[in-house]
């Protein structure tokens, strides 16, 4: 996915990525990535957990607020803060 | 799990052996605030529409092709093309949106948090060992599709 994201960025289209393993995001050089504390197969949270999934998606999309330069790698907050919804650590 | 240390020994060995290729650094600046951006989703679940799309093939090195799926795709009709045994397939079968968040970006557009949803999203197959195919073919093809749809921001969701 990192190679695909880079190809899209080179076309002038910004990308944000979910990262299931932080080290992989670092290794492939994902431009903007949100590391999540979920297992393989559940990148946005568990099945049926619509609120959590939507919060993770919104947190990932909010990485676009970073002015750059990248790469940007943030951690999705681990519970119990999860219950409060997404957060942006840069406060923007 | 977020960290390498939290993986099972099997998954750690698999990831260690995977031929990760570092992409050339690239950074497209945002075209505006999130509330004005058109968003597309790219999933690695290998979702496809039986009868409408070709299935992903179990070929050596992995099937690096891609499928364009319309924004109003019926998620319940999708089939999972990802054949990796390293992840929980039941979750994605029970709730495809948990790996292909099409309804979630639609909800964010309805709430005005993003500007719009792209007319098409993209599905690829994960666990591709033949990284050269991704670099030479799949990446540029997906970039073309997103550019054609005037996408401003692509959300990549690996499974």
Distance between the termini of chain B: 12 Å
Radius of gyration of chain B: 16 Å
Task: List segments of chain B where confidence is low: pLDDT < 50 over at least 5 consecutive residues.
Answer: none
What is the overall number of helices of chain A? 3
Q: How many strands, which pairing sense, and closed or not: the largest β-sheet of chain A? A: 3 strands, parallel
Largest sheet properties of chain B:
5 strands, mixed
Largest interface: A-B, 61 and 65 residues
How do the helices and strands follow one another from N- to C-terminus of chain A?
HEHEHE
What's a quick, concise take on this entry?
The complex is a heterodimer of chains A (92) and B (159). Helix content of chain A is 30%, strand content 15%. Chain A is an alpha/beta fold and 92 residues long.
List the helices and strands and how they pair.
The complex is a heterodimer of chains A (92) and B (159).
Chain A: H1 2-10, E1 14-19, H2 22-28, E2 32-35, H3 50-61, E3 72-75
Parallel strand pairs in A: 1-2, 2-3
Chain B: H1 9-17, E1 38-43, E2 66-70, H2 89-94, H3 102-110, E3 116-117, E4 120-124, H4 131-148, E5 153-157
Parallel strand pairs in B: 1-3, 1-4, 1-5
Antiparallel strand pairs in B: 2-4
């Amino acid at each position: 996915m990192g190679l695909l994201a880079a190809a899209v960025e080179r076309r002038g289209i910004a990308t944000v990525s979910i990262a299931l393993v932080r080290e992989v995001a670092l290794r492939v050089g994902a431009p903007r990535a949100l590391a999540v504390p979920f297992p393989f197969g559940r990148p946005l949270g568990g099945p049926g957990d619509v609120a959590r999934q939507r919060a993770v998606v919104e947190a990932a999309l909010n990485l676009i607020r970073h002015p750059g330069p990248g790469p940007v790698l943030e951690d999705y907050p681990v519970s119990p803060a999860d219950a409060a919804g997404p957060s942006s650590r840069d406060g923007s | 799990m977020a960290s390498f240390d939290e993986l099972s020994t099997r998954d750690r060995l698999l990831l260690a052996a995977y031929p990760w290729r570092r992409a050339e650094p690239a950074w497209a600046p945002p075209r505006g605030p999130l509330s004005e951006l058109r968003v597309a989703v790219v999933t690695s679940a290998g979702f496809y529409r039986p009868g409408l799309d070709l299935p992903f093939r179990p070929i050596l090195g992995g099937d690096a092709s891609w499928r364009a799926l319309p924004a109003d795709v019926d998620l319940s009709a999708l089939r999972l093309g990802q054949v990796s045994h390293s992840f929980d397939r039941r979750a994605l079968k029970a709730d495809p949106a948990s790996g292909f968040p099409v309804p979630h970006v639609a909800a964010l557009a309805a709430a005005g948090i993003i500007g719009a949803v792209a007319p098409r999203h993209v599905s690829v197959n994960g666990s591709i060992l033949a990284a050269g195919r991704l670099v030479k073919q799949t990446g540029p093809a997906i970039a073309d599709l997103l550019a054609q749809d005037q996408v401003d921001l692509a959300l990549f969701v690996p499974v």
